[in-house]
Design a protein that fits this description.
131 residues, alpha+beta, eight-stranded antiparallel β-barrel, 3 helices, 8 strands, globular
């Protein structure tokens, strides 16, 4: 009985590891890109663009892999779809995105993707444009 429970536990653990290894990044990053992002998150890199340019670039619709957001030029954000009640304010000061959940350093920024420092995790936070 103990042996079969032990075997079942081992098989379950192996299956879980296999599923995690096969899981794809929700934002479509390749394994090589995930390695790059992990290394980037371990640095103190800060984007070189001025705050005014970053604010202009942040306006639009973005996906994080879990949720979609709309960032407006008036400094408000809203989780999508619009019937979702989650909303708040945002601003960019000293290369940091500051919103109701805290502030995160912007490490990379383009019109397609923002990469933000994640002090509590292996990978940085990412916003990928969807509009």
């Amino acid at each position: 009985m103990k042996r079969s429970l032990l075997l079942a536990g081992i098989l379950s653990s192996l299956f879980t590891l296999h599923v995690l290894a096969e899981e794809k990044d929700r934002l479509g990053a390749s394994p090589a890109e995930l390695v790059r992002l992990s290394k980037l998150n371990a640095t103190s890199q800060v984007v070189a663009l001025p705050d005014a340019e970053l604010r202009k670039m942040m306006v639009g619709k973005w996906m994080t892999g879990r949720h979609e957001y709309a960032f407006k030029a008036d400094g408000t954000w809203r989780m999508l779809p619009l019937d979702t009640a989650m909303s708040g304010t945002w601003k960019i000061v000293n290369h940091q995105l500051i919103d109701d959940t805290g502030k995160r350093t912007i490490m990379e920024a383009s019109h397609k993707q923002f990469v933000l420092k994640n002090d509590g995790g292996m990978y940085p936070f990412r916003y990928v444009r969807i509009d």
